[in-house]
Amino acid sequence: MDDKNEKIDVAYVAHLARMHLTDEECGRFQEQMEQIVGYVRKINELDLDGIEPTSHTKPVENVFREDVIKPGLDRDVVLENAPLSKDGQFTVPKIIG
Amino acid sequence: MDFDKITVCGALELMEKGECSSEELVSGLLGVIDSKDGEIGAYLSVDHADALEQAREADRKRANGESGRLLGVPIAIKDVLNVKGQACTCASQILKGYISPYDATAIAMMRKEGAVFLGRTNMDEFAMGSSTENSSCQITRNPHNMDCVPGGSSGGSAAAVAGGEALAALGTDTGGSIRQPAAFCGCVGLKPSYGRVSRYGLVAFASSFDQIGPMTRDVRDSAHLLGVISGQDDMDSSSLNLPVPDYVSMLKDDLKGVTLGLPKEYFVDGMDDEVRASVMKAVDVCRGLGAEITEVSLPHTDYAIAVYYIIATAEASTNLARFDGVRYGFRAEGVTDPIDMYGKTRSQGFGDEVKRRIILGTYVLSSGYYDAYYLSAQKVRTLIRRDFEDAFKKCDALLTPTTPTPAFKRGDKSDDPLQMYLCDIFTATANLAGVCGISVPCGKSSDGLPIGLQLLGPEFKEENILRTAYAYEQGRENG
Amino acid sequence: MQYLHTIGLEVHVQLKTETKMFCGCGTVYGAAPNTNVCPVCLGYPGAMPVMNRNAVRDTILTGLMIGSEISTYSKFDRKSYFYPDMPKNYQITQYDKPFCVGGSVEVDLEGQKKLIAITRIHLEEDVAKSMHFHKSSGVDFNRAGVPLMEIVSEPDMQNAEEAFAFLQALRQIVRYVGVSDCNLEEGNMRCDVNCSVRPEGQTELGTKTELKNLNTLKGVYNAIKYELGRQVEVLSSGGTIQQETRCWDVDAGVTESLRSKENAHDYRYFPEPDLMPVVLTAKQIEDWRKELPELPRHRRERLVLEYGLPDYAAGVIVADKHVADYYEEAAALVSNPKAVSNWIMTEMLRLLGEREMDIEDVKITPAALAGIVKLVDSDAINSTKAKEVFAELFDNGGDPEKIVKEKGMGQVSDQSAIEELVDQAISENVKSAEDYKSGKKAALQYIVGQVMRLSKGKANPKMVGAMISEKLG
């Protein structure tokens, strides 16, 4: 973050997250997000040199499962949940490229 | 039967003695729900026939001499937990039509002990909120004042327990979502240490914070339910393989030999006077029960909300990426290609607060910002953890208010997301540090709204906070 | 102007585990769509991944095999991008802490050896398979979540031949470790190519393009050839290369730009909170190292030294680890190990090829093959009959000596019996006998052939030859 005053671009970020926002939503969120981002930036007041990041509160390692087959779900149950399906497959609008 | 008062342990005793059947209990509760839930709005769905059938099955088992730690006990379930064959909407439009093909591990453990799954409770959409106003389905009212929010995100569970519509409920807590509504509605809510209860089947909001926990009418019930749902699970790599103590047997009437710490950062100027007075009165009760009281410091508390919102939304932005209209749930109409399908489905399917949090989480992980936000937040998380480690060297549990104020009016904060976030100030730290916490009622405001006392304990020391909460609860009644 | 070429490969190899990377679903190829699925690999709400122990071990074994440094601390990360074949719309992969770092693969380019450096090997989950209907696409999640090992090379290759040789050598190594079949048709080995060109004398690399849809070794070779040529052509005519992904069109034989709507990739990597890190001790790594098979190129050298095989033959034998294992087992039982290699290189590989079989599936045991070699060496059977014995054992198994006895294939080495046949053959082929006497040495072989015919192939051909030349000499 070179520029401390650089503003969040809500429309761009929403596109990254694959949400199609209306202009009204973009405008409303822009203001709210600037305020929220401004608030969370306060963590940069702290001197964090040499501090290890915490991604898990309890340091546990090497949690594996054995390579043994377990029953999964029936296809009927799975496709019942699908918005659209055909020939045992989930269908989506045509993928191009 | 007094459905406002009966507890899980009380009901088990009655059924054991043959003084009441599960079917009677469940049909009684269904009657209360029919008459009261139209106004309270705690439940999203209740399948009467199914609940009664489960109850009859439990009665048959009991008649056959079978037993179970929850045999025949009706429990309300927050709509964020998968129960096989039931809808699980997370109070979102995007999960419309989804039927769970599997049980969450906590649900499976309760099922094994004979629990009856009564119905599904309302919540903030995807557990994002502190008032249940973010539900896309309905309003839930605080049974103590219908103009007030029940808290959130487990507001439906809290309101059901407080409103006499359930003996107990399961909630989930990511930044206070069990403890805060418990405080607002005047019930007991426990957030276990991270890793104590399996998260498998809990629709993830923030994977490194989420925990499932009980919401009950008294401390003993929370101890009892925690004992049922705790333990290592092969399906959740973050669940810990540590023995599960018999929490109920560790409850005591006094606090002799217990040291309680008051973190000075939780008693700041400007906090609600009635909340302060109630909590200080609770401190006196604890002292009277033999506890030693000492002041401690959690110096990085002021940064907790910022850290919490960075990490929780980052994780959420990926956890919620799967809601895309391909495999289950809602898909927008008239979509032309996959990108169009995602854009429309997700913008129509998610509510405002979920969108804001996905945007924040996506932003803090995006190229060029990761170090300044996400990585820094994880470092501050380390500092907050250390604060707790240091504090727990001096005491067995911390004693704080659960919330800065009692329940607020509906609509008071719903236009100001940041003010809403700051409601979590006393609860989110426990999730950041992975420690356990419980909220227990400690009086009412002059408006008759409940006030919550929070006890925080070291990781995997649930017995510390349960014992303290239990002794306080007894002392409060007697004193 | 002369141009320098630079090629780097990213090779995806599906591991041959029983179950998927993060759930207990099976990985068998060719199952009906969406029949090997569960809440985890479908990205259901609330489902969580748990690491497959064997997939982690297999990746580390591969790294040890190519001399990688094995990380004592590794972790998984989430890589975000939306695509219908991604169940969670993020892929669980390894970003900055992969299991294996560094290493190299030696390739043989017409006798010239070259080391291709490896950057890293990491483990991730495969995506689903999509297929196209008329107006929509269908998605089958059976493949989603299959463990996928990604091997990234340094940009060390300079032409399509090197890339081709690298892929072959890598495939051989992975098959040696036994962690994947590397079957290109089944898609369990896939490859992306990065390539660039720059004018001679320029030190920094040119702008690279990424080639996709390379489903065969031949496809990789042809696509690189084409793309390098295209880039040189663009540059020499004054154009510039766009950094982009290009798709190999097999039928047209050209690479084409993939203009996707989503150009700005921002994968937003961060540590996977649902998985715990993998921390390995030096002892664990050493224990795995002991499980490793010999590298193919080391084995080839050893076969030359130990069994006196020609380098070429040793190369053919070690190409497939199971063939080499078979060879060594048989060779240990005979005094003439070269004969064993001849059998394998001719009859065995021919029949395996014809029947589309693997050597693990044949009925003839290494001991039985050794038995055939011994019978031939002791003149108990001749080579024609030996081939019949081999064919019989290949299909049905059994003991060669017993078969020879049962079918009366024993070589006739009885002096008087052979003399009778030799006399008959000479009297029936007077012209040839005369020719031989008058110095046409080749006529001898004809008469030998006649004797063999009369003996139904059982006469000892050495004795027959000696006797004829004695009688006519």
Structure in a nutshell:
The complex is a heterotrimer of chains A (97), B (479) and C (473). Chain B has 479 residues and is of the alpha/beta class.
Please give a structural write-up.
- The complex is a heterotrimer of chains A (97), B (479) and C (473).
- Helix content of chain A is 32%, strand content 9%.
- Chain A has helices at 10-16, 23-40, 75-80, and strands at residues 64-65, 85-86, 89-93.
- Chain A is flat and about 55 Å long.
- Chain B folds into 3 domains: 8-242, Amidase signature (AS) domain (Amidase signature (AS) enzymes), CATH 3.90.1300; 259-298 and 384-478, D-Maltodextrin-Binding Protein, domain 2 (3-Layer(aba) Sandwich), CATH 3.40.190; 306-371, no CATH class.
- Helices cover 39% and strands 13% of the residues of chain B.
- Chain B contains 15 helices and 11 strands.
- Chain B has helices at residues 8-17, 22-40, 48-63, 105-112, 155-162, 179-185, 219-229, 273-288, 304-319, 338-349, 352-365, 371-394, 417-421, 428-433, 462-478; strands at 43-45, 74-78, 116-121, 168-173, 188-191, 211-216, 259-263, 292-296, 397-401, 436-444, 450-457.
- In chain B, α5 (155-162) packs parallel to α6 (179-185).
- Chain C is elongated and about 90 Å long.
- Chain C is an alpha+beta fold.
- The chains are: A alpha+beta (97), B alpha/beta (479), C alpha+beta (473).
- Chains in contact: A-B, A-C, B-C.
- At the A-B interface, α1, α2, α3 and β3 of A face α9, α10, α11, α12 and α13 of B.
- β1 of chain A pairs parallel with β2 (51-52) of chain C, so a sheet runs across the interface.
Write the layout of secondary structure elements.
The complex is a heterotrimer of chains A (97), B (479) and C (473).
Chain A: H1 10-16, H2 23-40, E1 64-65, H3 75-80, E2 85-86, E3 89-93
Antiparallel strand pairs in A: 2-3
Chain B: H1 8-17, H2 22-40, E1 43-45, H3 48-63, E2 74-78, H4 105-112, E3 116-121, H5 155-162, E4 168-173, H6 179-185, E5 188-191, E6 211-216, H7 219-229, E7 259-263, H8 273-288, E8 292-296, H9 304-319, H10 338-349, H11 352-365, H12 371-394, E9 397-401, H13 417-421, H14 428-433, E10 436-444, E11 450-457, H15 462-478
Parallel strand pairs in B: 2-3, 2-4, 7-8, 7-9
Antiparallel strand pairs in B: 1-3, 4-6, 5-6, 5-10, 9-11, 10-11
Chain C: E1 3-14, E2 51-52, H1 53-65, E3 69-70, E4 73-74, E5 77-80, E6 90-93, E7 100-101, E8 104-109, E9 112-125, E10 129-132, E11 136-140, E12 147-153, H2 160-177, E13 189-199, E14 209-214, H3 217-236, E15 244-249, E16 254-257, E17 270-271, E18 278-279, H4 282-291, H5 296-307, H6 311-318, H7 321-331, H8 337-355, H9 366-377, H10 383-396, H11 400-406, H12 415-428, H13 430-437, H14 442-454, H15 461-472
Parallel strand pairs in C: 14-15
Antiparallel strand pairs in C: 1-12, 1-13, 3-7, 4-18, 5-6, 5-17, 7-9, 8-9, 9-12, 10-11, 13-14, 15-16
Helix pairs in contact in C: 1-4, 2-3, 5-6, 6-8, 7-8, 7-9, 9-10, 12-14, 12-15, 13-14, 14-15
